From TrEMBL:
Cofactor(s) needed for function: NADP(+); NAD(+)
Source species, domain of life: Eukaryota
Family in the record: In the N-terminal section; belongs to the NAD(P)-dependent epimerase/dehydratase family. dTDP-glucose dehydratase subfamily. In the C-terminal section; belongs to the dTDP-4-dehydrorhamnose reductase family.
Pfam families documented for this protein: GDP_Man_Dehyd, RmlD_sub_bind
Keywords: Lyase, NAD, Oxidoreductase
Gene name in the database record: RHM1
Documented EC number(s): 4.2.1.76
GO molecular-function term, one example from the UniProt record: oxidoreductase activity
Protein name, per record: UDP-glucose 4,6-dehydratase
Residue ranges constituting the RmlD-like substrate binding domain according to the UniProt record: 390-560
Amino acid sequence: MTSYTPKSILITGAAGFIASHVANRLIRNYPDYKIVVLDKLDYCSSLKNLLPSRSSPNFKFVKGDIASADLVNFLLITEEIDTIMHFAAQTHVDNSFGNSFEFTKNNIYGTHVLLEACKVASGQIRRFIHVSTDEVYGETDEDAVVGNHEASQLLPTNPYSATKAGAEMLVMAYGRSYDLPVITTRGNNVYGPNQFPEKLIPKFILLAMKGQPLPIHGDGANVRSYLYCEDVAEAFEVILHRGEVGHVYNIGTKKERRVIDVAKDICKLFSLDPDAVIKFVENRPFNDQRYFLDDQKLTNLGWSERTLWEEGLKKTMEWYTTNPNWWGDVTGALVPHPRMLMMPGIDNGSSGSSQQAVITKSNSQSRMVVRVPKSGSAGGVASPRKPSLKFLIYGRTGWIGGLLGKICEKQGIHYEYGKGRLEDRSQLIADIQNVKPTHVFNAAGVTGRPNVDWCESHKPETIRTNVVGTLNLADVCREHGLLLMNYATGCIFEYDAEHQEGTGIGFKEEDKPNFDGSFYSKTKGMVEELLNEFENVCTLRVRMPISSDLNNPRNFITKISRYNKVVNIPNSMTILDELLPISVEMAKRNLKGIWNFTNPGVVSHNEILEMYKTYIDPDFKWNNFTLEEQAKVIVAARSNNELDASKLKAEFPELLSIKDSLIKYVFEPNKKVHANGIA
């Protein structure tokens, strides 16, 4: 068996989970090896993961992106790199369903840049170890008794594994075309200290620590194999020194566990009742049932799994309970289906005095090397770096569009209003190319002035904006890989025999519209059905919107307080002060599909006006009239219904009922002192 001894190793992505354990191990065990770490410090990486190596003279950290060809070429030459261990990648499957282009950019293009730099280095690189995943094999048959071996066919089933398989093809091609000394690894799931909690085990541990439910995709019967991080680091140590060029090595274990059993084991560690805390949630678009590897080839090199499941899980639990704030605010990662842009408070230790910029000179060129400070350095961990959100909002002159801008300003989110008209595709494309948004919000639409009766006599204009324009925007966003948050309406339903007034049985997201009494509602129902064909759209059914601005003529309370007579029918309604910030959070979570965007429950016209009288004007009086009487003074019929908001409530448990929200967000801020003593 041949043995390889490197001199100068470049490890990409080594501020991340697995690679940091590998880097720390090599730095500790081989003081004669120079270890250069290249990492762009994305949301799931942190300089703190490299703290064990901070004082080692053979360690150097460079903050940068593997997609930067100039930087990679420069490092290979100036650091005299002879070995590359390529870990850097986007790895979370959930993220790949919501932002697949980012996976292509990082996993395929980034790998290609590295390979091309190695080709240019012309014989300097003696080992290129490419880190792939067991997921490139696709799903293993449930009854298979022999795992996938290294020559098995690659059949990836999700965008993440597809990009990893694509990167493998490039690695193989460069090995054959340019004699690059490549080795590829494909590993099972890894767990242990320092792992970012978007992954199953750290997520469940942190949720258990908080006493919150453990969300399981589907029925939890999916089977996975788990290796402890130190065992995996040892595997890479063995492959580095004993692996044969041109070969692939599976890093796996034959011990398999169902996801639900993992959850139960964690419940046991925290003395929790699994039946009480395990929560079954919607499955991924596709969730492989099983990955099973044959690791005999690696075993032949002398590696074996050392850490028992119970021992590794206990060590991991102890680390997270000792370091609960290692990653800062990870609220966005703990939801059932996290996305990259849901991670606003991640602490990767990349700013402030927790690192130093050291400028050195080499061959008349400058480079910046960022080192982890040695113990005793001044300062602490600085405020967390936030991923860059940028919203493109349509509907600047509208009520909701204007409020969205204010919310963005309050939250420090970059935003711009769209300049193009929705029906003009070229203008929408120009907006997206100029703004380069992460999300698009559509708050533009025709509702009519002063009300929906206007639409009855302006049908072409209504169609142009509500149907053609909305579909146009959805399609342009789809082509650019962007999520569209579309503010729609719930005024496409009417109480019927199955959803009777007063029963508390509301229309659900999957119910088909049953009301087209107004042309406005007809166009909205039509476009909602068509939008179902777009996987990049989040449709928010708004109803009878209310805000704390009681001077706004579009406010439902303002409207009915100025009418001579009102009907008295319970309806679902949307308190914008509470729900619009939730819509921004939904964008961060990359939520899609149809959502009843109302506060739970219903409230009648009279109940609202009673609150108005109590809090605002004790002398206020009003009269009721019937639907038949109302029909005589309006052109188009009006929708009355209750929407079932349980889906939204499950995603946002803090959401208030309609009456509680009215009091908190509308009437309390506007209450007047009057003779009856309300203050």
